[in-house]
Amino acid sequence: MLEQIKKVKFGAPAAERDINQGLKEYFVETGAFNRLKENKKSIILGNRGTGKSALMKMIIEHYRKNSTIVIEMFPEDYSYELLQSTLVKENDGSWAKVSAYTASWKYLIWVLIMKEYSEKMNMVFKTTAKKSHVYLRDNHKGVTNNFMDLMISYLKRIEGLKIGAYEAGIKTKELQGLYKLEEINNLIPEIIELSNKRQIVIIIDELDKGWDASEDAKAFIAGLFQASISINQHTSNIKVVLSVRKELHDNIPSLYEDYQKNIDLFETLEWDDETLFNLIVKRIRYSIPELKNKSDKDIWNTIFIEKIFEQKSLNYIVSRSLYRPREIIQLCTEAQSRAIEKRSNLIDINAIITAEAKYSENRTKDIAAEYKFQYPDLINIFEAFRGSKCTMTREELEILCLQIISGEIKTGHKTEWITKQNEEFLINILWQIGFLTARTTVFLKNENCDNFFGPHQVSLVNLSNIKEFSIHPMFRLFLGIREQ
Ligand SMILES: Nc1ncnc2c1ncn2[C@@H]1O[C@H](COP(=O)(O)OP(=O)(O)OP(=O)(O)O)[C@@H](O)[C@H]1O
Ligand SMILES: [Mg+2]
Fold first, then answer.
1. Do residues 22 and 279 make contact, with C-beta atoms less than 8 angstroms apart?
2. What is the tens place of the pLDDT at every residue in 159-171?
3. Distance 444 CA to ligand 1 centre (A)
4. How do residues 177-219 score in pLDDT, each as one tens digit?
5. d(CA 90, CA 282)
6. How far is the C-alpha of 373 from the C-alpha of 10, rounded, in Å?
7. Partner of 9 at 20 to 30 A CA spacing, among 61, 133, 221, 388?
8. CA dist., res. 105 & res. 381, Å (int)
9. Distance of alpha carbon 150 from alpha carbon 164, whole angstroms
10. Ligand 1 mean position, distance from CA 299 (Å)
């Protein structure tokens, strides 16, 4: 019914705002959340909009309820540009930047922990952590709360030694001291002792805000990874939890190379039809309390039409996504507006398809923007597919890719990153970012399923034997792709 459709609030597309709109009520407790709670994981990896911040916000709630102290590092506070402009370039100083950042992160985090204990448990801190109390008083009294300043000052000390004119022996000794955190090392046992009384977690999210792919930005994140792993080894009572976008992680060589070594610490966020269905139904149930006792299926059917082109409407909607909650929320919200405009009693085929047109355009542009550092101007490569068939044999696809690479189809000067590559490379990239799906056989719900799948659904190690490809439905309406 129209009245019910009007009542539904699908929520805000970003967790930072969603948390004030009901996320606590309609959060889907996935395995990822439980593993985080059980202290098994400390690094959250996920594409944009897959729920990293939602997980962080909810884990913070969980910790606060347990009276664990939480330190949240806010996105406004990172400033890659500042780092870039303040510090000497790697080439000019021959300094191992990742190590410098690792040491600075460790220093920063330990100092923040001390400050937090001193604030939250003042008397206990003074008596249990005497040396730390004196250290804070003498070195960080009235220091700003801007943690970037603290970090940069440490980096600057390392930089000064690295590039300054000192006698070699002194230089090495002093540097060793800074790398090993000599200044605070003897305080750490006290802090660990204190953490037995009250646990502390440091939550670091949205590291990609202002990301510029610079040398410093990469070293900043690589250093944080190392620092967090090292700090987490001391005791389970002190924990650093961080999240990072997958494509950003894949773009930092030192992280990528270490991935296997630390694989047990990573939680990669993944969704499927069922969990996404659950996510939407919970939101509807929350918005319309009188539906509370209905089954999930009934709730869905109160708001959405059952089928679209012989396909369940849920599957239709989910198939227009890369399995990211933000996409589903966006498409549903858009379709809801269309249904209300047309005074429809259900979010029907009409509402969904008109919503999809705008959605498809936004998503195509967003995906291109998401990979702008790795693959600049991807949008022009997408454009080269405009009007093409939706499924293609490998040969047809290779011909099109060759035309793009050779410049026969013009994609602009910013896409020169493809000019030295072959068609295999381009097909691989287009698959990885979700633009292409590959026809293959997988075992799904107890049966062999022969269909087109993307990397959000299956992991294919080798694409070279795939004979048929399809353009992912999310991009089709915008690019005028012809369906069979
Ligand atoms: N487990 C969940 N239960 C309910 N809603 C969720 C869940 N995970 C994510 N969402 C919702 O999905 C949307 C996108 O999630 P979120 O903002 O956390 O993504 P993100 O990974 O942090 O994205 P970005 O990389 O852009 O920061 C938000 O509306 C969020 O509330
Ligand atoms: Mg986020």
1. no
2. 888 777 777 777 7
3. 26
4. 999 999 999 999 999 999 999 999 999 998 988 888 888 889 9
5. 50
6. 32
7. 61
8. 39
9. 21
10. 22
